[in-house]
Design a protein that fits this description.
The chain is α+β, with helices and mostly antiparallel strands. Helix content is 47%, strand content 22%. The protein has two domains: 6-217, Alpha-Beta Plaits (2-Layer Sandwich), CATH 3.30.70.100; 230-327, no CATH class. α4 runs antiparallel to α6.
Length: 328
Amino acid sequence: MSAAAQIASSASPAGKGAVTIVTQTRVRPECTDAFARWQEATSGVIDKFPGFVDQKVMPPSPPTQDDWVIVQRFTASDTALAWLRSEQRLKRLEDAVPMLIGRDDVHIVDDADSGVLPAPVSAVISTRIKPGQENTYRAWERRIAAAQSRAPGFQGYRFEPPVPGVQDDWLAIVRFDSEANLQAWLDCPERRKLLEEADAFTEEFHARIARTGFDQWFSTAGAGRAVIPAWKQNMLVVLMLYPVVFLFGAFVANPLLLDRLRLPFAIALFIGNVVSVVLLSYLVPWIGNRLSWWLQPTGHNQRRIEIGGTLLVTGLYTLMMLAFWRLL
């Protein structure tokens, strides 16, 4: 991101626990491909940096998310701050400046606290307060936090003060269960009225949206690898979900829960759903690791790899349907 990128930290610089850097940056439309190549090269640099754990790169998803979102995990806030201030990063940023629109948002989130990512959709809000107005802002923040907790779809909230010597912005991250509910809160009259009240003690305020899907089931730690497309994630979820549902129904739900125990169908279905979700949390990462060559192809034959992997997964669908058809 830009050399003028501002860093808001929710972790103490001396903290020992793992932290996550969340960067949101807006790229000029004509520079999308160039920025993707720049990000891939930058990912190769950070992959060798001491304390780096893994990262996710989420391209824009218009109309709700116009930014690139880069999520980078480090072993501690010390190593994360060392990366943000490193010569390697600053040299990379110089090449990126002509491709960017406006300022970047770079935040450090302490992984030890109750997390805010991943979530279906989150708003990352930065606020710069006028000198001497910190207590007034804290009182106002408690009011808006209470209001948003009553909003439909609200899932969680993080509020972090600035870190002296690092950045003066206050950071809030708000989670909702859907883009529609988040946008409804951002646009609602109650919030607008509260924001108008904050003008008296606010120097700068802006919010950006970040989206996620099945990302928590898929590792994207490889250097330079972009986030896995949702359609591939969905295909692998179906690949694992179909046999789990079929086999549980054929050998557990029907003969045991329904016939022997005579449980109501609604209860048997609920038990099946719980078992499916638990098993998928292990099976989807397992199959994802084995098909990582297709989920995140690299090199010059990416199109051929994408087609080949899609045909392979489709073929597995067909084989399972034929096998289960013959089984019963």
